[in-house]
Design a protein that fits this description.
14% strand, single chain, 4-stranded antiparallel sheet, 8 helices, NADH Oxidase, alpha+beta, two-stranded antiparallel sheet, 220 residues
Length: 220
């Protein structure tokens, strides 16, 4: 798909000026393998692009995860991402396009335990990172210690190329240290993972399902 280079450059700069540390774009037609009902054109009928933004978690917060402090900062960064996504959506509208921000975390589909669009898969398609052995997004500069938000738009933006390197290899730390062995088979056992998340949430009296162990132990 041909895109507008000048508009793409402006969108990325505005996102960075608003506070995003990493910005990537994926063309909407790259999402052919996404589950039915979770593709950009379901969210916006004439979707052409998905803008993905990332903000890293603070290192000091990760050290003691899971903890109340980790939860609070996780919540704060999600809020910041949602703010940036909303302002970027308004900018796209001011340019004559439509945009639909997808929240960084909740609210999402509780029954399926996933959002309307997978931020991590969108980030892979937008060249921001790769999927690691913990099945989370792994970035070059921040490893898995990032939070993500996406904006679906009909603006004709130029997509970034997905990364073709694997910098998550030769290490099994996330698999080894998962407290419920949810990563033993090479994919995330959602039942085990969610059970642990609910247990931690109850112990910490938090509204989000969080853990952070597989993020904390990653050496990247």
């Amino acid at each position: 798909m041909s895109g507008d280079a000048e508009l793409t450059s402006r969108v990325k700069k505005i996102a960075q000026d608003l506070g995003a540390k990493i910005v990537g774009v994926a063309e909407a037609d790259r999402f052919g393998e996404a589950p039915e009902g979770h593709r950009p054109n379901v969210i916006l009928g004439d979707a052409k692009s998905v803008v993905v933004l990332a903000i890293p978690l603070l290192k000091g917060v990760i050290k003691n995860a899971p903890s109340r402090e980790y939860f609070l900062n996780y919540f704060m960064i999600n809020h910041e991402l949602n703010r940036i996504a909303l302002h970027l959506g308004r900018y796209l509208e001011s340019e004559g396009y439509e945009a639909v921000p997808i929240p960084a975390s909740s609210p999402y589909n509780i029954n399926e335990n996933r959002g309307d669009l997978s931020h991590r898969h969108a980030a892979v398609l937008a060249g921001i990172g790769i999927l690691g052995k913990n099945n989370l997004l792994i970035t070059r500069n921040y490893g898995p210690r990032v939070r993500l938000v996406s904006i679906v738009t009909n603006a004709p933006l130029i997509g970034d190329e997905p990364l073709n390197e694997n910098f998550c290899k030769g290490c099994e730390a996330c698999v080894k240290f998962c407290p419920v062995n949810a990563l033993e088979t090479g994919y995330t056992n959602k039942e085990k993972c969610i059970s642990q998340l609910k247990k931690i949430g109850k112990e910490l009296n938090t509204s989000e399902l969080i853990c952070g162990v597989c993020i904390k132990v990653c050496p990247l």
